[in-house]
C-alpha cells in the first residue's frame, strides 16, 4: 500500500489503481452475500488516480445493482471509509455513482461526498 513517507512523484498511478481496487473489491454488498466485485458494482476501470496540487485525486465510480437501490448511499460510504482508512491525509477522494446508474444519482453523490457525514 502507499507509504505516507513515499515521495508522491515516485509512484506508479496504475499500480495505485490496482491496489485501491484490491482494497475495495472484497467489500460485501449490504443485502447480498456477494462482494462488490462479484456483483459488478466496482471495477478497476472505474478507478482513477491523478495529480492534484501537491497531493493526488483518487476517484472511484460504482454502479448499484438496480437503478433504485435503496442502499447506494451506504455502499458509497463503505467505499469512502475503506479508502480513507488507507489514504486519509495524502489524497482527495471522490466517490460517485456511475452516470445514469441510479434514479436519485445527484442526491446520493451529494450524501456520499458530504464532508459533514
Automatic annotation (TrEMBL):
List each copy of the MIP18 family-like domain by range. Answer: 18-81
A Pfam family assignment: FeS_assembly_P
Q: Is Acetylation among this UniProt entry's keywords?
A: no
**Keywords tagged on the record:** Chromosome partition
Keyword Lipid metabolism assigned to the entry: answer is no
On the tree of life, the source organism's domain of life is Eukaryota
Q: What family is this protein classified in?
A: Belongs to the MIP18 family.
> Mind telling me what this protein is named?
MIP18 family protein FAM96A-like isoform X4
Q: Which gene encodes it?
A: LOC106464146
